[in-house]
Amino acid sequence: MTIRNFLFVMCDQLRADHLGCYGHPHLATPSVDALAARGVRFERAFVTSGVCGPSRMSFYTGRTMTSHGANWNRVPLAIGEVTLGEYLRRNGRSLALVGKSHMTPDRGGMSRLGIDPASDLGRSLAAGSFVEIDRYDGHQEPGSESGYPAFLREHGYTGERPWSDYVVSVTDDAGNAHSGWSMRNVRWPSRVAEPHSETAWTTDVAIRWIEAQGDGPWALHLSYVKPHWPYVAPRPYHAMFGLEQCLPPVRSDAELVDPHPVLAAYRTQDECVSFMRREVSDTVRPVYQGLIRQLDDHLGRVWETLDRLGRWNDTLVVFTSDHGDYLGDHWLGEKEQFHDAVQRIPLIVHDPSAEADATRGTTDTHFVSAIDIVPTVLEALGLPPYAHRVEGSSLLPLIRGASVPAWRDFVVSELDYGYRAARRVLGRKPGECRAWMLRDGRWKYVHWQDFRPQLFDLEADPAELVDLGLDPALAAVRDALHGRLGDWLGSLKQRVTASDDDVEHGTDRHREAGIPFGVW
Description:
By secondary structure, this protein is of the alpha/beta class. It has helices spanning about 30-40, 50-60, 65-70, 85-90, 105-110, 120-125, 150-155, 160-165, 200-210, 260-265, 270-275, 280-310, 340-345, 375-380, 395-400, 420-425, 475-490, 500-505, and strands at about 5-10, 40-45, 95-100, 130-135, 170, 175-180, 220-225, 315-320, 345, 345-350, 360-370, 410-415, 435-440, 445-450, 455.
């Protein structure tokens, strides 16, 4: 069957180990598991950065954080960067968005080029070339970009701030309202009924949009904000799991003895101070699981829509997350650092073509990255690869059982913590806060700008509890990994204004141009 459509499902802050098909012993996720049975589940998929914004920009451009330059949330993606939506538009297609994108307009770039932000081109660039059906980033009161506030008011959640007052607020056992921003309160349910929750709304909009496409080709980014904080779940999901059904925090007291300076600085920030307390992790983890189960139930509605419309037969489906969540692991909260709890993500791909039949329901253990999604989609839809820009590799050969002897044997992720309070704790300037992780099958190496490296032996210490960054016996290992990281940096694609075909066509052509230099 020819692939005509593309459904790109992303969850926000979803850990890979919190899905049934990835091994969680108590959190059943039958809808995600059903997708894995239809496609290929990638066991070793990683982000390019453990931060929402830069991670998503890599998913959308097929380029690393070093290359696309949007190294933190709300740092604009440079106007010269090309997204999947633009690639599709060049070829007569479009990419719709329902949910979160984290795109921030490069207004400085538009001003420099004389582009009116209110023009069609300006609006498209500001949206990252998504066609925004309903944008909902879910971190603050939504505005006119989303129909959710009006929907809430239509259902009786009145006031100027229905998201703050109802969606991310809770009702205690005595009927009193509390803010869900305080994690102590998330054991109680949201003040909105489940059908009026963020996940339900986003799913409703996506299903209506898919139904409206009829038999025409389409591409949709369905991007959920959950299970990202605020960790507020509607009834009954807020109390669906007990603590005994949750994974315990992965951490040891030894991690707090002579810790890496950057991690020590991070542990002075509010989210880490909180999650270092066991009661915080014990309160949040059951609700986090409830939010995931709610997502899975609504994904079941999406799958039923594809089935009812006959779209499984011609739709490439990608399911993933933009990063994980520490939840107290390693005495940390939030994300950003380089442990697998944050960097490793779920990735499941359903390819409807007959060439993929032999791999359905299988698990792939190659190292794959967020930058691989763009080239996968381009190949699946029969579009040019734009190989002079795109730094990832199409996953279709892996999905279709082809031999790929030259596939990468490591992944790299990056961090720029210049916007974080940890920078000031360390006395660093904004341009002095970079770090790079290289992870292969045995080792995880982290190079920190002006600080000592980190090293973990993943065979002996899969939980990443023992930092070997100063072990003199492993100096040669660190040097070798550092060299590989340098080689990787040298391989990134900086020539983005001329294609490889342009180079081939222009090679050794100076004499034809009347420039016969170097002759005797």
